[in-house]
Write a structure and sequence with these properties.
single chain; about 280 residues; alpha/beta; Purple Acid Phosphatase, chain A, domain 2; 2 domains; five-stranded mixed β-sheet; 10 strands; about 35% helix
Length: about 280
């Protein structure tokens, strides 16, 4: 038996298409998406429709929840007037007909195949979809987060960084991100779980090269970039395959400057990063 587990597609249609083709070639019998179909990328409606049409199992990521909460008025009222959040309104309009679907997705999926090690699949951690199991966490911190998990294998996502680590007898696997990796490897990333004869799982980390130029064009031509600063930050993360939003916000607090276009580009220059390498324009 082979199970594909992927996550963090984030509106990247081209990366998802590459993954779908690879899954088809590998004759996978079950596919599970560990959340975050939408936001951060320009092709959100297409991604949701592709996943739904494929009939894959999906759990709710924090960005899926965020978009649904935005539409249902479950975010702070001041966000609706803040220019920083305008790109979220743009994404919400893209997936308007799918908001009910995004809101209804489960928080976790348990994979209990006969004769196989059970697997618990979450987006962030077993405690919250915004809590990431980062590679830098200590053994003690990991044990605290994993308290109460009975399954011998836990699959998580959210950090956009691949992980394969055993903590107190629990194997923790993060497949990396399909659409916006943060490990400085721009390839589309996911995992294949193959059941061994002894009931344990062999885990293969798959990395797929695809043409990223159409994604860049979609950022610009769809109107997403024009919607506001947050879209530019997400574009930078896509281009450089690394986390930037968190570090930019921290830098802005330390410098006591507002989150706006001028300070964003100052931050990029300070990191030695270009807004968009020429090959991506």
């Amino acid at each position: 038996m082979r199970v594909a587990i992927l996550a963090d597609i984030h509106g990247n249609r081209e990366a998802l298409s590459a993954i779908m083709a690879d899954i088809h070639r590998e004759e996978v019998s079950r596919v599970i998406v560990a959340g975050d179909l939408v936001n951060r990328g320009p092709s959100n409606r297409d991604v949701v429709e592709m996943v739904v049409e494929a009939g894959w199992e999906v759990l709710q990521g924090n960005h899926d929840q965020l978009v649904a909460d935005w539409v249902h008025g479950h975010v702070p009222a001041e966000w609706y007037e803040d220019p920083l959040w305008r790109p979220l309104a743009w994404v919400a309009r893209q997936v308007e007909r799918w908001v009910g679907y995004l809101a209804s997705l489960p928080a976790h999926i348990r994979l209990h195949e006969p004769g196989a090690q059970p697997i618990l699949i979450v987006h962030g951690s077993p405690r919250h979809n915004r809590e990431g199991l980062h590679p830098f966490l200590s053994e003690q911190e990991m044990c605290r987060i994993l308290e109460g998990v009975e399954e011998p294998v836990l699959v998580c996502a959210h950090t956009h960084i691949p992980l394969d680590r055993t903590v107190n007898g629990c194997r923790v696997v993060n497949p990396g991100a399909v659409g916006v990796p943060f490990n400085r490897d721009p390839r589309a990333q996911y995992t294949l779980f193959t059941l061994r004869d002894d009931g344990t799982w062999d885990v293969e980390f798959r990395r797929l090269v695809y043409d990223r130029r159409p994604v860049c064009r979609a950022f610009e031509r769809s109107g997403y970039l024009a919607s506001g600063l947050m879209a530019h930050i997400f574009y930078g993360e896509f281009i450089h395959a690394r986390s930037l939003l968190y570090h930019y916000e921290r830098w802005a607090r330390e410098q006591r400057v507002p989150l706006e276009a001028n300070t964003w580009y100052r931050f990029l220059r300070g990191q030695g990063l270009a807004p968009a390498p020429p090959m991506m324009r």
